[in-house]
Amino acid sequence: MRSYYEEWIERRRNQVRPQQVKCEKSYFKNHILAARVGGQKFGDFSLSGLAIHHLQALQDSLRAKRLGKRSYKAASINKFIGALQAMIKDARRTGAITVRLFDRDLFSKLPETDSQSDIDPYLPEERELILKGFLEHRRHYYPFVFHQFWTGSRPSEACALRRRDVDLIYGWERIEKSRVAGDESGTKTGPSNRQIRLHENLIDVLKDHVRFILEPDAYLFMTPDRTPI
Fold this sequence. Notes:
Helices cover 44% and strands 11% of the residues. It is α+β, with helices and mostly antiparallel strands. The protein is elongated.
């Protein structure tokens, strides 16, 4: 299992975005390969010898694992299993395995309806404390953090914004790209391409921020060294 994973994750670099590869590496290293199933690490199993009951045992092992005082949420476990499913699909395509392990009639992912929402928004008072902290101690990043609070855009989307994407006269910005770990590409999904109406308070902050950004292709948010975030 482990040796096939190492080959697969290298091919994965040419198939999906760098951020997804990074996530899948974490899922396998910290959860899938290290999980103990029947007294044996899952990474030590023979790929060709895998059976559906091994997947069920892996799922049970992940459900029993603790993160501090809490167990993993169903949504997290499903992400881990989803990464394994992607590798198994590749293994079937290459002929390394022939059995259909993820038969929907025999194996199901965990229901997520009973799990709590991952969304835990800041209270207005907390937001103001965070903004105050950046204004006083990391002023260069204050406009970026302010922008995130008042648009709700993904950080990767904000990092890809160019000066030309923002119109401060009519109060809107255009989201069409994302930037992750230095790699710039399209947004996460097609519907993610959108135009955002800017709040008046954000327009005031951005007007002050863009005074010295003269090139339309320059990134809207940069580090103090004038490199993309």
